[in-house]
Automatic annotation (TrEMBL):
GO MF: antiporter activity
Protein name: Sodium/proton antiporter (CPA1 family)
Region Disordered, residue ranges: 148-176
TM helices/strands, residue ranges: 6-24, 29-45, 65-81, 102-135, 187-205, 217-241, 261-291, 312-329, 341-360, 380-397, 409-429
InterPro entries assigned to the protein according to its UniProt record, in alphabetical order: Cation/H_exchanger_TM
An annotated GO cellular component: plasma membrane
Taxonomic placement: Bacteria, Bacillati, Actinomycetota, Actinomycetes, Micrococcales
Intracellular or extracellular location(s): Cell membrane
């Protein structure tokens, strides 16, 4: 295929990405499923001479593209969440009960489950098994859009003048869908909280005996970097939010003219500040978005920022999924063996659902509910641990930090798991959410 033809293929692919959300709206097919399939079809076409799509050779490029995609998705997730979370109102933390359980119980259990199945049962090297667990444990903020909240609500309709919102009030601003909120908030926070375990795998591969680095890992990677990332994000979000909504200089009050590019400035500023300070930039971006949202929760400006972030995310997702599809036809799964298949399927169908079910049930009485989730909703939340772009980033990052002899096997296993997740969760998402909504409707009509 001539190099110029790449532009034609890219243009057609982008057109497909624009049309797909409407085209598949009423069928049990997700946009990521179709994009991967389009990538597979493109992969069968001849490529320009010298094209190299080997993930080992182009690892830095993959890392940076996946990193940017996750960052943009995290800003979108942070802006989309309506439910307040405030240090001054401890009651708001209880409304996030399901989120904390998924983060602090389900994710470590998932990592441990993958590690034990891989290292103990299947004979995978301990460092590789731990890296696989850390990379695949987080619910992806990019590919889980079918089961996440759609976007921020506002007091004023688009085109109307923004009015300052009142103080955060869970009764005024709150998601009515507990399932979508739990999965969205989990995806926003767990991408940063998976990083300590990625570092643990890197240290295990490069330094060996955990006794030599475990204490430092707990103090710095597990606690210190998390705290720095959150603080950096809150500070950047507060400063930018004050400028946009409350600055004395009219030229700085970007909320008044609806300029949405502040969202991109916030992403880069929060991420850069956190990374320079030694913290986790992913957490900083999410915390920044949440903080900006909290300053004027009812402003329509959040919808403007969310809209541009969503469009950029769609373009990057198009690129990533097309590349995955193309690479599937060009050797990405060549190093997949039965161990990788078992681990991927076990994660999607057993380990994640079981870990999340335990997390959402432990400490709950027989007649109690966790975060207003009944048993049906807990089952849906437990099942939809979507794997995606975040897993690609963590794997690419770790392989750049330490030597893993199993790196090609890791690429094949992660790619297989993502594709299975895209298909399985893509087919089940609409039906599962419809089942939940029908149940809610039946309860409402009965009362």
């Amino acid at each position: 295929m001539p190099a110029d033809a790449v532009y034609l293929v890219a243009g057609i692919a982008l057109l497909v990405a624009v049309v797909l959300p409407v085209a598949v709206d009423r069928v049990s097919v997700s946009v990521p499923m179709v994009l991967v399939l389009v990538g597979v079809l493109v992969g069968f076409l001849p490529m320009p001479e010298g094209t190299n799509l080997d993930p080992v050779d182009i690892r830095p490029t993959i890392e940076h593209v996946a990193e940017l995609t996750v960052l943009i998705a995290l800003m979108g997730v942070g802006l989309a969440l309506d439910r307040p979370l405030s240090l001054r109102r401890l009651g708001t933390w209880r409304r996030w009960s399901a989120t904390w359980r998924l983060l602090l119980i389900a994710m470590p259990l998932t990592i441990a489950g993958v590690y034990l199945v891989g290292a103990v049962a299947l004979g995978v090297a301990p460092a590789a098994a731990l890296l696989l667990g850390a990379a695949l444990a987080p619910t992806d903020p990019v590919l889980a859009s079918d089961v996440q909240v759609e976007g921020p609500t506002a007091d004023s309709a688009p085109g109307e003048e923004d009015e300052p919102a009142g103080p955060d009030d869970p009764d005024d601003f709150d998601e009515g869908d507990e399932v979508r909120f739990a999965l969205t908030s989990e995806a926003g926070l767990n991408d940063g909280l998976a990083f300590p375990f990625v570092y643990a795998a890197v240290f295990l591969a490069s330094k060996g005996d955990p006794a030599q680095w475990a204490l430092r890992w707990v103090a710095w990677e597990l606690v210190g970097k998390v705290a720095i990332g959150v603080v950096a994000g809150v500070v950047v979000g507060w400063v930018l939010g004050r400028l946009a909504f409350q600055s004395r200089a009219q030229s700085l009050r970007m909320a008044e003219n609806g300029e949405p590019l502040l969202a991109l400035a916030a992403i880069l500023s929060a991420y850069g500040a956190a990374e320079l300070a030694g913290g986790y930039g992913f957490l900083a971006v999410f915390a920044c978005a949440m903080t900006m949202r909290s300053l004027e929760r009812g402003s329509v400006y959040h919808q403007h920022m969310h809209a541009i972030v969503e469009r950029l995310e769609r373009i990057l997702v198009l690129l990533v999924l097309l590349m995955i599809g193309i690479q599937l036809t060009r050797g990405l799964l060549d190093h997949l063996d039965w161990r990788g298949v078992v681990l991927g399927l076990a994660l999607i169908f057993v380990i994640r659902p079981l870990a999340a079910a335990i997390a959402l049930r432990v400490g709950i009485g027989h007649h109690d509910e966790c975060g207003d989730l009944d048993w049906r909703e807990r089952g849906v939340v437990a099942f939809f641990g979507v794997r995606g772009v975040g897993s690609i980033y963590y794997l690419a990052y770790a392989l750049g930090q330490a030597s893993f002899p199993e790196q090609r096997w890791l690429w094949s296993t992660v790619a297989f798991t993502i594709v299975v997740s895209v298909v399985v969760h893509g087919v089940a998402a609409r039906r599962s959410m419809a089942w939940i909504e029908q149940h809610r409707a039946s309860i409402s009509s009965a009362t």
